[in-house]
Amino acid sequence: MTASAISLPHGDGHDHYAHGHDSSGYDSSGHDSHGHGDGHGHVHLQYQPGLPLSRGKLIMWLFLSTEIMFFAALLGSYVVLRFGAPAWPLPHHVHLSEPIGAFNTFVLICSSVTVVLALEAARADKAELAKLWMILTLALGTLFLGVKAYEYSAKFSHGIYPWSPRSRVYEKPDLYYGSAVRARLGEPAMIDRLKALDDTPEGTLSEAQRSGRERLRQIRTMVTNPDQQPFDLAVIADQVMPLASSGGHGHGAGLNDVFPWLRLPAVIPGGNLWASTYFLLTGFHAIHVVVGLIVFAILLLYRLDHRTYGMIENAGLYWHFVDLVWIFLFPLLYLF
Amino acid sequence: MSDHDHHTNPQPLPAHGPVTRPGESTLGESTAHDRHGTTGHGTTGHGTTGHGDEPHGHESHGGIGTYMMVFLALCGLTTMSFFTYSSAWPWRDQPQVGWAFMMAVSCTKAMLVVLFFMHVLWEANWKYVLTIPAAMMAIFLALMLVPDIGLRTRMVAQERALYMPRQSDVRLMERASDTGLPGGSTAPAH
């Protein structure tokens, strides 16, 4: 037997280790370089992980540390852009609802708790209970996405898109804005609809529609007025989609709201950059939520007991991270 | 691993039990796994049995009561940051106070989630190896954006300033909202 750094406590171990010259059997750490010649110098080494955690969990944590940097880059860019911007819309300028955001925060926190409870139940071998918590997690994640979709549709309906061709957001009430309003009002289909609106008898219109029609008439003369003053453009922008006065939340009297088919361009100072960052941040977060839901759906195919504990733990780590990102996104997007 | 034939060999194991290297007798957990591994499917299975087999004496983890306390704390903290939005918040004219407050609340919430829900509180020291460099990189990343991006509007060309949205545009629109239409028609109900 060759001298090796590790000696066996029992000399009669040879007969077991004698066969198999390639034996790296119990030794996955490369210690089998010695003793190949004589056939019975192989020592029984045990696998020794570099870090005291399982491979799956190690990889999940490595992945999460890259995710930390990924979202830190996104969030950092958002903060830097936001505070470097000369004008930034208030949340109610861009139709963000703080209560809805807070509700979504609550939903994600609840789903984090249900994952933890599923893990606890799995450890105690209560597979049915674990499955129940997992289903609840799945439902809460879906609810989060549903609320998010509702919020997105509210943005889209106000012409706020993250990309330019469909976005109807203008940065300031200048001549470019005025000409965009005029161009929209001059579209052939628009002329027909405006004529139909003008011909509609008074009685069939609601109070808001009557006043809206009157305001629309004035705006149509204002955008084509050769003596137009710069301030008139701000008035037009305010009539199309008012920036709610600070403090108040109740607007909705804009012409775009009274007549949704109008779809006139609106002015939100800083709105385009806001839209880009908002959709990028929440979009990447939503993608992470979708991935998490897929993972949970796959987990539901298994029996959730102590044998799947590691899988649930890793999925849970990922899900808590998604929750963590939202914890920062919510105040930054909704309350700043 | 190339030694599956080695392990499928039904040869009985020697009775001496697991072998430990000198100075590693403290890793009782590993020897337990080794015993398991030799009766089962061998070393290749170690990685999979390692985390799925048993929760490694994690019994010191908080338990349901701790998790519920953390949950309540998280709900309370969310309410606190939401409070800055309410009219009862005393520093409405100084948004910086609210921002600092909300960031403090968010960091507290993040710490609670990481420490308790992600079990980091009960993990060994590897947690620092993985999280601290990543966090430092993250902070560095954000700071490096400041000169080019954060300060990009300090000095701009005249032409660019013409098309830039400005706070004066917001004020202009607010003034337009107060004035209403020149014809004196019904102003929108704000």
Give structural notes.
The complex is a heterodimer of chains A (336) and B (190). Chain A is an all-alpha fold and 336 residues long. Chain A has eleven helices and two strands, in the order ααααβαααααβαα. Chain A has helices at 14-17, 55-84, 98-123, 127-157, 175-185, 188-199, 207-224, 230-240, 255-258, 271-299, 309-335, and strands at residues 169-170, 266-267. In chain A, strands 1-2 form a two-stranded parallel sheet. With 190 residues, chain B is mostly helical. Chain B has eight helices and no strands. Chain B has helices spanning 4-8, 28-39, 46-52, 64-83, 95-117, 126-150, 158-163, 167-179. Chain B is flat. The termini of chain B are far apart. Mean pLDDT of chain B is 72; it is low at 1-59 and 185-190. Classes of the chains: A mainly alpha (336), B mainly alpha (190). The interface between A and B is large, with 116 and 105 residues.
Please sum up the structure shown:
The complex is a heterodimer of chains A (336) and B (190). By secondary structure, chain A is mainly α. Helix content of chain A is 60%, strand content 1%.
**How many helices of chain A?**
11
| Global morphology of chain B | flat
Straight-line distance between termini of chain B = 73 Å
What is the oligomeric state here?
heterodimer
| N- and C-termini, Cα separation of chain A | 72 Å
Structural topology:
The complex is a heterodimer of chains A (336) and B (190).
Chain A: H1 14-17, H2 55-84, H3 98-123, H4 127-157, E1 169-170, H5 175-185, H6 188-199, H7 207-224, H8 230-240, H9 255-258, E2 266-267, H10 271-299, H11 309-335
Parallel strand pairs in A: 1-2
Helix pairs in contact in A: 2-10, 2-11, 3-4, 3-11, 4-10, 7-8, 10-11
Chain B: H1 4-8, H2 28-39, H3 46-52, H4 64-83, H5 95-117, H6 126-150, H7 158-163, H8 167-179
